[in-house]
Queue: 2 jobs
Job 1
Amino acid sequence: MSETTATPPTGATPGQQPDARRGAAYDSAFLRACRHEPVPHTPVWFMRQAGRSLPEYLKVREGIPMLESCMRPELVKEITLQPVRRHKVDAAIFFSDIVVPLRAVGIDVDIKPGIGPVIADPIRSFADLERLRPLEPDDVPYITEAVGLLVDELGPTPLIGFAGAPYTLASYLIEGGPSKNHENTKAMMYGAPDLWAALLDRLAGITAAFLKVQIEAGASAIQLFDSWVGALAPDDYRRSVMPASTKVFDAVAGYGVPRIHFGVGTGELLGLMGQAGADVVGVDWRVPLNVAAERVGPGKGLQGNLDPAVLFAPTSAVETKAREVLHAAQAIGSSGHIFNLGHGVMPSMDPDALSRLVAFVHEASAR
Ligand code: CP3
């Protein structure tokens, strides 16, 4: 913790001292914005900033399968640092994947290039559920080690830990892989509500444990990715998903690290996703941030929300659209906005366009 800081982070359990290793990043623009404190400029980072858009990433990953690369701490450290060095983003996101904790408890899952996570035996019955045992920190020693290495190296740059939310993980486990319509997932949600609730509850436990490992090793914020929850209507979300996501947020509330909640196509769910327990709500590009601010309500930060495809347009168009995002964010006041894309960096994006965007956001938002 820095010498100038007198108060513990928002949400810290009384008497609980923040981990000293988290301290160096405490006054970073990113963590200050998460806490609605004044910032020198709007902080910016990109979902999927560590990955295939970077030639240096492709080089170090050569010949190493995705999930194996997540289990090599030195490699994880290098890949996580690459976009920080290159783009000068305000935060690092830990290089891993949402299915890593599932593999760690023994689920036969692989990530197929160009497809995504594929599950050998989908989960469709109470008997299948027994394969989802709780996650213990000893199951993921490589995560603890990689986070520790990173926090030492990052110094004042915050490290964002992350996990997949129960709904998004359930959709992969039930469908057996990526799915457009989530038909098996919804069939279970509507047709076997007890099995559905038991599955989401188990996943909430695994997700919470995975986040705790990252926070205890020194991550200074966390993001819960519910990428595919936009497939649901608000009533179904409230009834069938929100309790499990709330369980995850409650489980990590005592650490006092900011909790970000993100999904795609979630315009109608933004208010509920905030209520689920987030400090900051991620917004995709379909809802302007001033409208999102009304839906989320006061007291929460917003993250987003430039359309990733804009990065394929000329620099002047990128800057016009980025300025619109910064302007719309003023609806929540002078702090509380974290600039990001509305979804992840695409592999075919020009890394230089991303670096230029970071510099532009810093300059255009300088206070
Ligand atoms: O830079 C970062 O954001 C950190 C790393 C990160 C990865 N996956 C690395 C990765 C993060 C935060 C994730 C989260 C993740 N994984 C999500 C939620 C984020 C989102 O985009 O909505 C989801 C849905 C997954 C599941 C998953 N894993 C998908 C859909 C894919 C892409 C498949 C493909 O080939 O197009 C993966 C693989 C994956 N995870 C890659 C990376 C860098 C690409 C694999 C590779 O480089 O070989």
Job 2
Amino acid sequence: MKRIGISTGGGDAPGLNAVIRAAVKTAIHHYNCEVFGIRDGLDGLLFPGGVIPLDFSSVRGILPRGGTILGTASRANPFARKVERDGKVVIEDVSDQVYESIRAHNLDALLLIGGDGTLNIARKLYDLGLPVIGVPKTIDNDVGGTEYTFGFDTAVGTAMEAIDRLHTTAESHHRVMVLEVMGRDAGFIALHAGLAGGADVILIPEIPFTRSAVCRKVTERIRNQAFFSIIVVAEGAHEAGGEKIYTRSGDEIAQARLGGMGAYVADFVAQSCQVETRVTVLGHLQRGGSPSAFDRVLATRFGAAAVRAAAEGKFGHMVTLQCGRITTVPLAEALAVPKRVDVYGDAIQTARDLTICLGDG
Ligand code: F6P
């Protein structure tokens, strides 16, 4: 192994730079390799100057930095890319160009860091015969085959701090504060931040909610002289028999954008419980900023392990955390079943034991 490429794809997550730093250091120090960063997802393979050399000086000081020094692209799938042809926007498969570019750059290994979108692309590139290793990232923690993705712990910390802040103002004004957090299909951020911040109601995509269950909890608290409540809502939560709420519909390339469930919950609670409600949408604050210690360590372990996996020729695999140990799993296996909150698991049971309303019942 002489030349390694690194790319970060999809939405950013705190810890991406820690992976890049660890991979660069391991590859140069331990394997005497040359390392190249691909800019803006895989787009850098398609434009001049999009592949840049990375050395010790390129990664100096980036461990605590959020974002990614390589840039990322959320909608840059080479198998379905939006391009302009004769003034018209069309979808094209440019994977052959990506393939050629990887070959032309003589990359013996390509580390693709991303969530399920990017990892699916990684798997397809591997199927074309490219030497790809996946590194799982997402604040949502919804990638299968790994106990944790880096970025999640930092996002939970940010959401927990928001709940702490909302608590003091909720209590002072006797209000119900609704916090909408990210979580498209998985409610890990809402559940963990809600537990850490002492929420009264936690609504997640895995457990459809009823208005009556939510309002019952709020009125019961008022009856017990607790004149405020904190409700944490994952953006992908939905009412039993209802739909998720979107602010923008998707198309062949862009996913539909979720948002508005917090406001929806605040409205019906205000009307049914006769209380004042306010909504905070935490949004991309959860994606930005410096990674937590846990995420720095996990991302660093993933980065070093990805280079080791490449050296061992474990292409088509993804590095993963299982039972506290870093190992690898075939991408196909990891992507077969997306990770979701186990509704019969210990965290949910704990929430129920603490009389936190999960919107059902
Ligand atoms: O996948 C992570 C995530 O944070 C989702 O929870 C959210 O729906 C999505 O990214 C938003 O991404 P963007 O605004 O970059 O399209």
